[in-house]
Design goal:
This protein is an alpha+beta fold. Helix content is 50%, strand content 9%. The protein binds zinc ion. Zinc ion (ZN) binds next to β6.
């Protein structure tokens, strides 16, 4: 009897030992898993206070540089907003952050836009060369300037039927001229008669115009009224100042039916209203209801439908 009892006791002890070992192993595995989980970005981001959705969004970016930056900072939902911006560019991430920290009152869309199109700088500050290899989609403005010797090689004369001035005084690049003629005909069918007031202007032409203002009234005034040489879109041969046969007045043209027709239809022919009324701070130009730029139908339509400037389109879709 005693031996059986002793045997039973040993079995119980053995089973108990197994239970302790198995339990220990399971406990250990769980602790190890927890330890491993605490090392994950998911855990660290949740621990910083980001929501599950925000964490999923950040992890889906799959960008170590961005995640490491976010982890190095206190929780800041503005960073998430910036990352979510439609025109967010990964290459500009560090610039967005620096600009955000120096401009706390700006929204995430303003931060992304301003950095993308160099509005963190003043006009004419740290200018760059315009990329003429982009042909009809090049951008010329107060940041991207053309050289003195840039002259398009396919300029054609605008017929006197559609332009003021002496014969041969109005020139435009052929591709833009053909598009203009299509637009002219479409407008004419609706009873409008469009007339070109200004087209290609050489670097020297612009230099004369700008320097006249500068010499008489100073640089500040000159900059408010004319583009500096090299920064005028008219040097591309792709910009046209379009008025009507009955109105060439810069102050009142915007009120005419022709101006309204152009605004609503020009994109169908590849032209954009380059300096809109509500984009003055972005373009650096006062509203010019007459100044149209040829960029091609697809781009013009995108810009028209998304209500953005050419600066914004260029930065996101065309610039390296
Ligand atoms: Zn113009």
């Amino acid at each position: 009897m005693a031996t059986r009892k002793k045997l039973k006791k040993e079995v119980y002890l053995f089973i108990g030992l197994i239970i302790v070992i198995v339990g220990g192993v399971i406990f250990g595995i769980n602790k190890f898993k927890e330890y491993q989980y605490h090392k994950t970005n998911e855990y660290k981001l949740l621990n910083l206070g980001y929501s599950n959705d925000e964490v999923d969004f950040l992890l889906d970016l799959n960008d170590d540089e961005i995640i490491n930056y976010v982890l190095s900072q206190e929780k800041n939902s503005k960073i998430i907003n910036i990352l979510n911006e439609k025109y967010f560019l990964t290459k500009n991430f560090n610039l967005y952050i620096e600009y955000m920290n120096n401009n706390k009152d700006l929204s995430s869309s303003e931060i992304v836009r301003n950095i993308n199109i160099h509005l963190d700088k003043n006009f004419y500050e740290d200018t760059e060369k315009a990329n003429t290899t982009l042909d009809t989609t090049l951008l010329v403005n107060k940041h991207y300037l053309l050289d003195k010797d840039y002259i398009p090689d396919d300029l054609v004369n605008v017929s006197q039927n559609y332009a003021w001035g002496e014969v041969g005084s109005q020139k435009v690049r052929e591709v833009a001229y053909n598009a203009f003629l299509d637009m002219w005909n479409a407008a004419n069918e609706e009873g409008y008669y469009l007339m070109i007031n200004s087209s290609y202007r050489s670097y020297e032409d612009q230099e004369i115009v700008y320097n006249n203002y500068k010499n008489s009234s100073g640089e500040r005034f000159a900059d408010s009224i004319a583009a500096r040489p090299g920064s005028s879109e008219h040097q591309t041969g792709l910009a046209l100042d379009i008025f009507s046969k009955t109105n060439t007045n810069k102050n009142t043209f915007s009120q005419t039916d022709e101006a309204k027709w152009l605004k609503e239809n020009a994109h169908n022919f590849g032209f954009i209203l380059r300096y809109p009324e509500d984009k003055v701070d972005i373009t650096g130009y006062s509203f010019e209801s007459w100044h149209y730029r040829y960029v091609g139908k697809d781009i013009a339509t995108y810009i028209y439908e998304n209500d953005i400037t050419y600066e914004e389109y260029y930065a996101y879709f065309l610039e390296d």
